[in-house]
Specification:
With 533 residues, this protein is an alpha/beta fold. It is built from 20 helices and eleven strands.
Length: 533
């Protein structure tokens, strides 16, 4: 109904502008105007019938309904009269349309445009509405001329005005240009111009101040996130340093993750650790600029959670300061988030193992809690049993590129510059040989560190085979191109583990591997639903 109301109002305003420009009527304009008037009469009647009987009179006496009734009267009376000043009352429809416009913006554009964009749009539409209203009012008063009461105040005759000339006059006057080629000749017209200038200055001042405050809020992180239903986003809260933020975002948006990163966005909500330099760094990055929203706030405030659309997030990650050893803030953050947004899964990072019981007592699953102490001590213990396993696991868990580290590149460039003319004479010295082996070791380590773990559902061709047979076939195809004949097992791929279908558990809609078989001597045949690593 609101959309139809706005469309009918646009038709009536276009008809009004055409009539004032042509200064003549025809049958088509009378029919269209009468149809619009009948529609607004029915709309008014339906509004009064559905209103509360006790408030029916209050609804009928509002400024909106007053302008609506006058516009309806003008559209219905026009076919039966010819004086121009009667149908000129139709310009009051622009005021009712502005209220309908605000309703449409709230329902359709509130979650699409940012606060700054909404303010700019409201300023443009409000200015246009103000211009149209005063231009039409001055045109009506000037064309009516002075009555007998005001005749002694304005003896000269004013020229006939139309919609274009009056709009031009308003633009020139309110912009303080003031060419002087046109001016209000009637007393009522001059009074209207005075009111228009005062109202225009006040409106522009208030709107411009609000706009500047919103733009400043965007720079200080007090804006809000506009969620697109086609995208998925995760919310990251807590104490994030710039280094932690970089590592997290580089992992989430690494090219190796393929299509899963295309529709993913990240909203970072921090309070004390908010830095303008971090925001500028995000804006300089071509990927993070459109994928990451960096805002100031805390999960303890429901208003801040509404600003980031927390209820529509896929998941929320609570990151702690691993150097502070204090988990109090993060525990309170999780409790506050679960209270305000109970339907979104929370993954929390803790420093100390003993604080994990507090979150489990609050209903947080152990699968959603990562304790740094437990992880560190576990890796140290495994590294004692098998030296190097901690480095292997950390490398497999991170997404890296097959490129030489920047430190090694800089060292190599500096060595080239230092060698200069004597590079050949010193090429056989032990020092240069050590440098070359150092570069080779770095390249080999970087290549190995770039290996990652992927989960692949067992193809139909491999069902019934043992893990050892699958490892041999995949290795043969990966190295020589013979065996499995599956593009997922491309060059450089090896099978290191197997997760059975009955060991895959679902937590908050996400599949997690409970038990992984890494012993290739197990003669268990592969079944449908198993996952290869």
């Amino acid at each position: 109904v609101t959309e139809l109301h706005f469309a009918m109002g646009m038709v009536q305003m276009c008809l009004y502008s055409w009539r004032t420009a042509q200064f003549r009527d025809n049958l088509a304009s009378d029919v269209i105007g009468t149809a619009c008037g009948v529609y607004f009469v029915l709309d008014l009647a339906l509004t009064l019938v559905l209103a509360n009987p006790r408030r029916r009179l209050t609804v009928a006496l509002t400024a909106y309904q007053f302008c609506n009734i006058l516009a309806i009267f003008s559209s219905l009376w026009t076919p039966f009269t010819r004086p121009r000043q009667i149908f000129s009352l139709g310009f009051l429809r622009v005021l009712t349309m502005y209220k309908v416009y605000t309703t449409l913006v709230y329902h359709y554009l509130r979650d699409v445009l940012s606060d700054v964009h909404q303010k700019v749009l409201n300023l443009a539409v409000g200015t246009l509405t103000l211009f149209l209203f005063f231009a039409s009012l001055i045109m009506t008063l000037e064309n009516m001329g002075d009555t007998t009461f005001f005749a002694f105040l304005s003896p000269e005759d004013s020229a006939r005005w139309n919609m274009f000339t009056s709009f031009y006059f308003i633009m020139v006057t309110i912009s303080t240009v003031g060419y002087g080629d046109m001016s209000a000749g009637t007393v009522l017209g001059r009074i209207t111009v005075i009111i228009m200038i005062v109202v225009g200055i006040l409106m522009f001042t208030v709107q411009t101040t609000d706009l500047m405050e919103l733009m400043e809020g965007e720079n200080t992180g007090t804006g809000r996130y506009i969620h697109n239903s086609k995208d998925q986003f995760i919310l990251v809260c807590g104490d994030l340093s710039l280094q932690t933020l970089k590592e997290l975002l580089q992992e989430l948006f690494h090219p190796d993750h393929g299509e899963s990163r295309d529709n993913l966005k990240v909203v970072v909500l921090v309070d004390k650790t908010y830095e303008v330099d971090n925001r500028e760094w995000l804006h300089r990055d071509p990927i993070f600029k459109n994928k990451v929203r960096y805002l100031r706030g805390e999960v303890f405030t429901e208003r801040d959670l509404d600003r980031v659309c927390a209820s529509q997030a896929v998941a929320c990650f609570m990151v702690c300061d691993k150097w502070s050893r204090d988990d109090t803030k993060n525990v309170l953050r999780v409790l506050a988030f679960k209270r305000f947004v109970p339907g979104v899964p929370v993954y929390c990072m803790l420093c100390q193992k003993e604080n994990q019981k507090l979150l489990e007592a609050a209903g947080v699953s152990p699968h959603q809690i990562m304790c740094i102490d437990s992880l560190t001590m576990g890796l140290i213990g495994q590294n004692i049993v098998t030296p190097g396993v901690s480095t292997l696991l950390m490398n497999l868990a991170a997404s890296l590129d097959h490129s030489l580290p920047e430190v090694a590149k800089k060292k190599r460039k500096r060595r080239k510059k230092k060698r200069g003319f004597f590079s050949r004479a010193k090429a056989s010295t032990p020092r240069v040989q050590l440098a070359q082996s150092d570069n080779e070791w770095l390249r080999e380590y970087q290549d190995g560190a770039a290996q990652e773990i992927y989960e692949v559902e067992v193809p139909q061709k491999l069902i019934g085979l043992t893990m050892r047979q699958v490892q041999q076939m995949v290795y043969s195809y990966s190295m020589e191109g013979d065996g499995v004949d599956d593009d997922r097992f491309r060059s450089g791929v090896v099978v290191i583990g197997l997760a059975s279908a009955d060991s895959i558990a679902t937590h908050n809609g996400l599949d997690q591997l409970e038990k992984i078989i890494t012993n290739s001597t197990v003669d268990r045949p592969l079944r449908t639903g198993d996952v290869l690593l």
